[in-house]
Amino acid sequence: MPPMAFTGIVTKVGFMHKTATVTVSRRVAHPLTGKMLERSKKFLTHDEENQLRLNDQVVIRNCPPISARKRFKLETVLKSPEREREEHHRQLAEAAAAAKGKPRTAATA
């Protein structure tokens, strides 16, 4: 099988050790009407470090069979909304802690 890489969204994670379900969508034209339809397929993907989170946008690449249904490995994480949200909350908490620890001056009182 030639090497294939797909971009998809993580739709299920945490239920199986080192495994995530990635949904890959593609747009095709209907043969009769010509309307664009969205087709999707789910792939079980090997995630060695258990780093994937729900709704991550990832690139997966085919590999030799890892188990009965796992034929893809995680290549890269393109976008992770959950990690971005956690990072934003951490920065807000640090800013609040820094502001709370500052001595009050006449200008801030």
TrEMBL record:
Gene3D superfamilies: Nucleic acid-binding proteins. Residues 93-109 have a biased composition (Low complexity). PANTHER family: 40S RIBOSOMAL PROTEIN S11 FAMILY MEMBER, SMALL RIBOSOMAL SUBUNIT PROTEIN US17M. Residues 79-92 have a biased composition (Basic and acidic residues). It comes from Phanerochaete sordida. Belongs to the universal ribosomal protein uS17 family. GO terms for molecular function: structural constituent of ribosome. Keywords: Ribonucleoprotein, Ribosomal protein. Pfam families: Ribosomal_S17. InterPro entries: NA-bd_OB-fold, Ribosomal_uS17. It comes from the Eukaryota. This is 30S ribosomal protein S17, mitochondrial. Residues 79-109 are annotated as: Disordered. GO terms for biological process: translation. GO terms for cellular component: mitochondrion; ribonucleoprotein complex; ribosome.
